[in-house]
Amino acid sequence: MQHNKVLILDFGSQYTQLIARRVRELNIYCEIHPFNKVPEDIDGYKAVILSGSPSSVRSEEVPHPDLSNIRAKKPLLGVCYGAQYLAHFSGGEVAPSNTREYGRANLSFIKEDEFFEGVSEGSQVWMSHSDTIKHLPTNGVLLASTHDVENAAYKIEGETTYAIQFHPEVYHSMDGKRILENFLVQIAGVNQDWTPQSFVEETVEELKEKLGNDKVVLGLSGGVDSSVAAMLLNKAIGENLYCIFVNNGLLRKNEFQDVLEQYKGMGLNVKGVDASARFLDALKGESDPEGKRKIIGRVFIEVFDDEAHAISDVKWLAQGTIYPDVIESVSATGGPSATIKSHHNVGGLPDFMKLKVVEPLKLLFKDEVRRVGASMGMSPNLLGRHPFPGPGLGIRILGDITAEKVRILQEVDAIFISNLKSWGLYDSVWQAGAMLLPVNSVGVMGDERTYEKCVALRAVESTDGMTADWVNLPYEFLQKTSNEIINKVKGVNRVVYDISSKPPATIEWE
Ligand code: XMP
């Protein structure tokens, strides 16, 4: 089944992905493409949105795509830079603004239009721009202003072209989603037919067709993405999906057994491979963070490759790659950087595996992966898990890794996480874990002097891991958790709480 599609042309704004998410929340399928690669099959798109940009239309290297197949032929919405672009190149004027135009502003309507239907006078919108539209383009009709921005919203007479200086996609624009809906549904007539259920049905059909009777191998990590990818493939090809779950010895306490059980309960054909000893052996004496990552990545590939070869006649490798990993980003200078991030957890599988790659989630954002998982009946426990790095506790044990250090950190981490859950705090934290520091400090237990390890607890809030802030956990929670750790985990006599934001710190300590 063909859904209506919306095209978002990306001019490099930090908010472009947010536009896509808001559109998808309206159950409308959309794609982001870089401004300099307008898709050739433009007929397949029902409406087009031009994103914001860090560039200025007045600069020499202004991104300037050919929109002749779009302009006046398709419903078109310019957002921020997109609005300035439509003005500047069509007889209007854009100039540096004299007043600060960042943050909140309130709309005041000049002319009634279905574009703003259901949006009340004074509605808060979010501005973030340093140029301003001085004069509207030819046939421009002013729709709304704010206190500081006269030309905050306009349309072009005789076309379905609209332009807004503010950002409807950010949370602080109170009626932003309504405005996008007015444009896409009322004005452009796009169908709202893209739902988690329809995604599952169509993806399963596509996978069936693509894979036929071929065998597929997939590395499960215990995380959300690989698990949801596995469930989709399982629906499509059943026993022909061979899942491999590798214990690298650096998982959380009891994680290997627990998650393996859970996977089996989900009907997956999964093989657990306990390679702890092999990983720990390879890591012996290595204390450099990147060195440890490389070893863990290499051994993972060796183990995975051995296991994949043990299955006869495998043709495909499935990966849990998601949309943010594949969107070609446009760099802040306006030039296309065309970097495609390599998938973190799988760490770049080698060419010698010679398998074709299938990525059933590569069109979804993280929250959509969760919704797709939920619509297949997957457990909220699994779908709500905190992110966990591929190298696991290996990058939370600072310095070299030994079995004893892993044991200590697993115990500490288990107490911290289970307390977060029992205090009802787990779901309000984006990621949490403990770090084992390469520091011994003096303590006293009973009458004895101790000289033991120090651990740091870290809990952060974030949306994507790119920026993060520490969570203000209740003192009483920290007190109880610290007591429990020191009393129960042999070898630890001191607990500290990390209160650094990212940037300048990172989430992990290594
Ligand atoms: P940082 O420490 O860079 O972490 O602020 C951001 C997010 O990425 C995770 N992370 C990793 N995930 N392999 C992974 O699969 C890695 O080497 C790695 N390093 C960091 C981290 O847990 C956080 O969610």
What's the total number of strands? 21
Q: Profile the largest sheet.
A: 8 strands, mixed
Report the sheet-strand fraction: 15-25%
Structural class: alpha/beta
Number of helices: 13
Low-confidence stretches: 332-347
List of distinct ligands in this structure: xanthosine-5'-monophosphate
Give the proportion of residues in helices: 25-40%
Overall outline: globular
Mean pLDDT: 92
List the strand order in the largest sheet: 2-1-3-4-12-11-10-7
Task: From the alpha carbons, calculate the radius of gyration and give it in angstroms.
Answer: 26 Å
First-last Cα distance = 46 Å
Q: In words, what does this structure look like?
A:
By secondary structure, the chain is α/β, with parallel strands linked by helices. It contains 13 helices and 21 strands. It has an 8-stranded mixed beta sheet. β10 and β11 form a beta hairpin. α4 packs across α5 and α12 runs antiparallel to α13. About 3% of the residues have low confidence. Bound molecules: xanthosine-5'-monophosphate. Xanthosine-5'-monophosphate binds next to loops. The site of xanthosine-5'-monophosphate has 13 residues, from loops.
